Amino acid sequence: MSLRTRLMLLSGLWILLIVIFFNWFIYYYILKKTTDNEVRQLWNKAKIILRDTEIHHPANWSSGLLQQYLEPDSLIRIIAPDGAVRAQVSASEELPAHPATYRTQYHTVVQNELGLLILFIQVPIVAKNNVQIGLLELGKGLNVVAAFMELLVAGLTVTTGSVLLFSPLVGFFYTKVLVHPIRQLLETMRTIRSKGNFILLSPQFTTKKDELGELGRTFNEMIMRLQENDRRQKHFVADASHELKTPLTVIESYTSLLRRWGGQDPAIRQEALNAIHSETVRLKGLIDALLRLAEVERHAQTELHPVRIAELIRSTAEQMRQAFGRDIVVRIGSEEIQCSGDEARLKQLLIILLDNAIKYSRKNVFVECDEEERYVVIRVMDQGMGIPSGELPLLFERFYRVDKARSRGTGGSGLGLAIAKQIVELHQGSIRLDSEEGKGTTATVKLPKSSLTAF
Ligand SMILES: Nc1ncnc2c1ncn2[C@@H]1O[C@H](COP(=O)(O)OP(=O)(O)OP(=O)(O)O)[C@@H](O)[C@H]1O
Ligand SMILES: [Mg+2]
After folding, report:
1. What is the position in ligand 1's atom list of the atom closest to the CA of 406?
2. Does residue 275 share a domain with residue 225?
3. How far is the CA of 360 from the centre of ligand 1 (A)?
4. Which residues have C-beta under 5 Å from ligand 2, the single-atom ion?
5. Radius of gyration (Cα) for the chain, nearest Å?
6. Which residue from 90, 154, 262, 333 could staple onto 258, CB 3.0 to 4.6 Å apart?
7. CA distance 378 to 368
8. Closest atom of ligand 1 to CA, residue 443
């Protein structure tokens, strides 16, 4: 059963139940109110009759005595303790058929009898010595009330019928409001699945201020993110294959050169071997970087421990100084600073930033480390060629290099900063580059401080 039919049936059923309940309530409320009034009048009449002294002498009981109190559509009778009717007057044809029963207490009855709505009250007749000598019974046919109630029932039946007829129609429109957007969403999802392209929901869906609008907006956000991921993935595959293809092409052309001429000519042989070697090193570096990137992305969840960052900066700077033979000036604000992190990854991050500073400058490189509120701030500064401001936002993209030809000379693959960004994000920190062309570049990394103590 479709959602729409289910909602329609359910809402229809509920409306019907509510209407039936209210109709029942109205019927019984009105019936009670109207009969209460009649009962009160009958009790008053009984009181008046009992004030008559003749009533208290059984010898005087007769129709004549009661006749003066008779009103249209009513009955008055006196029942003796043996159950016999001793006197009776009636202005109605039906009421005398009601069986006479002797009782010793007050009694009221309202019922549908012989197709008539009737009301009877019974009042004991008590003599001076407090002994009950008979029972006064007053009856009344509630014809007017019955006619009114009939009208009421007819009215209520018409209302219930109309509700029965119209509730599916109301349900139809009201479920349309709810089900239509869900159908639209389903259609869009099906199209995305069958055609494989990303489709957004129309603004007509997403601009609504209710929960459905919220659903639409969340769906669109999700699709946009998937689209962006897909675009980046395609971009990455294209870039990676291009980067891998270039050294392989060089290797291929040198090996064919070797096969044709290299065997005889030692100069060509040497040149080819050098080129093949350097391209293989480049290729290996590229694959290493790709693996590192994949590794960082794969272990998006890592355990963070308190790391003595001052020690780590000093030891890494020393290693880089030895490897490149370049001066690195380290300035630490406080020796005790600790950040929450993964030591191996943080070292990788420092190497990436120092490597860039060394590669793209010729003067001294500076590293600073300070505390700023809840963060440890590390700055790696160089006085090198700098980066054009328009390129700054793109540097964290994988394979992005400012001047491809120039970077190629320095052997960069354009993956360093992409890996750096992943590492920083893994530590819930941030990274930014500030640069002025011809003056130098500063890489600033902010990492959350650790509240625990390192061992
Ligand atoms: N300190 C810097 N000074 C000048 N340019 C820089 C600096 N750091 C990065 N760049 C520029 O940003 C580009 C991207 O840097 P990234 O570290 O991601 O790649 P790479 O250094 O080219 O290669 P890899 O680090 O993977 O060996 C570099 O190619 C370079 O053009
Ligand atoms: Mg680099």
Report:
1. 31
2. yes
3. 8
4. 356, 416
5. 50
6. 262
7. 6
8. 1
Does residue 375 lie within any of the structural domains? yes
- Give the range of the structural domain holding residue 260, as residue numbers without chain letter: 198-298
266 and 344 fall within a common domain: no
Cα–chain center distance at 71 = 71
Hey, whose CA ends up nearest to atom 19 of ligand 1?
A: 414
Find out whether the beta carbon of 243 lies less than 6 Å from any atom of ligand 1: no
Closest CA to 151 of 37, 40, 35, 30: 30
Q: Which amino acid is at 249?
A: T
219 within a domain of the structure (yes/no): yes
pLDDT of the residue at 5: 82
Is the model's pTM score more than 0.70?
no
Give the residue from 250, 277, 298 where a domain finishes.
298
- Which residue has the least CA distance to atom 28 on ligand 1? 401
- Residue-level pLDDT at 454: 45
Nearest CA to ligand 1 atom 21: 412
Same domain membership, residue 217 and residue 136: no
Q: Are 427 and 447 in contact (CB under 8 A)?
A: yes
d(CA 268, CA 286): 27
- For ligand 1, say whether the CB of 348 is within 6 Å of any of its atoms: no
pLDDT of residue 411: 61
By most ligand atoms within 8 Å of CB, the mutation choice from 243, 287, 360 for ligand 1 is 360
**Domain CATH number, residue 277:** 1.10.287.130
Mean pLDDT by 10 residues, the chain (455 residues): 80 87 92 89 94 91 93 94 94 90 93 82 92 95 85 91 83 81 89 89 86 91 89 79 83 86 78 88 85 72 83 93 90 87 90 93 92 92 90 85 61 83 91 92 93 54
Q: Which one of 355, 395, 419 would you pick to mutate in the ligand 1 pocket, going by the greatest count of ligand atoms within 8 A of its CB?
A: 395
pLDDT at 455: 46
Would residue 169 count as lying in a domain?
no
pLDDT the model gives residue 254: 87
Q: Do 290 and 330 have their domain in common?
A: no
**Is 166 domain-assigned?**
no
* Residue 384 Cα: closest atom of ligand 1: 3
Domains identified in the chain, total number: 3
Residue where one domain finishes, among candidates 298, 324, 354: 298
In this structure, are 355 and 399 located in the same domain? yes
The CB of 385 under 6 Å from ligand 1? The reply is yes
Q: What share of the chain is helix, strand, coil (3-state, %, to 5)?
A: 60, 20, 25
Residues 291 and 311 both lie in one domain: no
Local structure of 429: helix, strand or coil:
coil
Q: Using CA atoms, how far apart are residues 139 and 92, in angstroms rounded to an integer?
A: 10
